[in-house]
Protein 1
Amino acid sequence: MRNQMLGTIGGIGVLLLTACSGGESDPVPSAGSAHVEPSGQGSDGYASDGHESDGNESDGHDSGQNSDGWSYTGDTGPEAWAELDASYAACAGDAQSPVDLSAGAAAGATAALELAYTASSATVTDDGHTLKAEVGEGGSTATLDGVAHDLVQMHFHAPSEHTVDGEPAAAEMHFVHAADDGGLLVVGVLATEGVEDVAWAPYLSAADLPAGRSVEVPVDWAGIAPDVSAYRQYPGSLTTPPCSETVTWVVADAPLELSAEQIAALDAAFDDNARPTQPLGDREVVLHE
Ligand SMILES: [Zn+2]
């Protein structure tokens, strides 16, 4: 269920634990001993230095074209997603994400949202569309209206997908949670340029991964958890194919501050990996303060 909802890693079975940084200083302390399943290793040259391209991929980070057939530009871009594959039909639905958070906003009853995050290892993968950090051991949860959701993965978009008064932020982080019944809760936070946030350093250390590769890093989930003391909530969808309309969205009012260098690292990994905003329709964005 989760895998169907959240998608899979780029269609490539090869994971490799090198940060592809030339080895001058390994930013990934646990890489040497961490677990990996290199299903294609040894027969395709990946093990040698991790730089070879693959027949299924084009040329890496910014090409936008992935083996799952969709991208952020051109003939396979957002306007075409619903037509690319029968399983992507929901992308033309009327409860899609992202949206502009200013439109239709109204104060609502306060719903308690609690993030209980703990540090854990995470497997960070360049899946051809973003850097996806999948949670290892740890048991981080988000509880909304009494319903617990497990933190599954976190990734980014740059610029942001949700907008405020039509304006995107520099980037947006998505913390994806799943409940036992398969319902998804995604907590988003907009990132603006400011002071460096060192808690993001381990995740950002993977920003130069080649497409299809993974690295295991320690993540202080509590240290990077969004401030959800005030947030906006609405019903929506995955912002990437298959665009399933199974997501309760929460976007924190308080932005995340990252340094110009940290934002540049995100942009260097994936530029313009953001879906345009979708019509709100008859949905309401509810403010919780
Ligand atoms: Zn996302």
Note: The helical segments are 2-6, 46-49, 81-84, 201-204, 221-224, 260-269.
Protein 2
Amino acid sequence: MGNNLLKGKKGIISGALDESSIAWKVALRCHEEGAAITLTNAPIAMRMGKINELATAINAEIVPADATSTDDIKKLFERAKEIHGGGVDFVLHSIGMSPNVRKNKPYTDLNYDFYLKTLDISAASFHKMIQTAYQLDAMNEWGSIAALTYMAAQRVFPNYNDMADAKALLESVARSWGYHYGLKKKVRVNTISQSPTYTTAGSGVSGFDVFYNYAESMSPLGNATAEECANYCVMMFSDLTRKVTMQNLFHDGGYSNMGVSGKVMEAFKGEGKKVE
Ligand SMILES: NC(=O)c1ccc[n+]([C@@H]2O[C@H](COP(=O)([O-])OP(=O)(O)OC[C@H]3O[C@@H](n4cnc5c(N)ncnc54)[C@H](O)[C@@H]3O)[C@@H](O)[C@H]2O)c1
């Protein structure tokens, strides 16, 4: 049940592919809290995913846009302005894809055409979205922009591959735009660093079950679920967080500040016990 935290607000939510997508849950929660939403995803996701079901459930229009295309993004913001009769109050970037991960190219043998695609789809697209909104003046004053990221931007998770570099760039883009958009229109820009979550993108990383189980065993509060991430996004889009900007916000049950947990200590008990 909602608390009208987003009553009267309008937002754009990218990246809802199917009901496991984090963006799917965010869209449902934002709708529940009273927001009017425009959905967007890559044209191919329209054919493969189930976004139409979500659109019907929350009474939203879908505007297809490849996040690497500035033309598409421009059309997205222009259409959103028409739909909502003016600027929007929040934007969620929930987009990630690495052709190197898809094609099992390890970090030590990257294909550089793929690498540029990874950075373009997963990070530069955030810059493109914000720059387009900025130049079209498509955000309302005190608006909130957020992107989903992962802790591989700070620590090494070998199988996360070139997505780690993309996330580091994504987080830097948030800081830089937070300055510029804050000055211009009091718009805040943040990244939310989410726990491993079973979704199409998440499960595409090899050894994802190990990431998930290890983080679960290390975090005092356990991994954050997609539903909990949606709650966090609602808070970030609400007026209760107006002065939070240029931050990378960990939403991970405490994992990012852990050294070792009792459970993991238990697994390594015994003199000389180690993983070969
Ligand atoms: N699942 C996790 O464990 C986890 C953890 C931390 C952060 N994240 C991040 O959350 C975000 C959402 O991922 P998810 O886990 O919900 O998976 P998902 O696969 O449901 O969502 C990824 C979305 O990116 C979209 N996309 C890919 N290429 C695109 C393009 N060119 N243009 C527009 N959209 C495009 C896909 O269509 C899809 O909807 C990603 O940024 C991901 O890195 C996920």
Note: The first helix runs from residue 22 to 32.
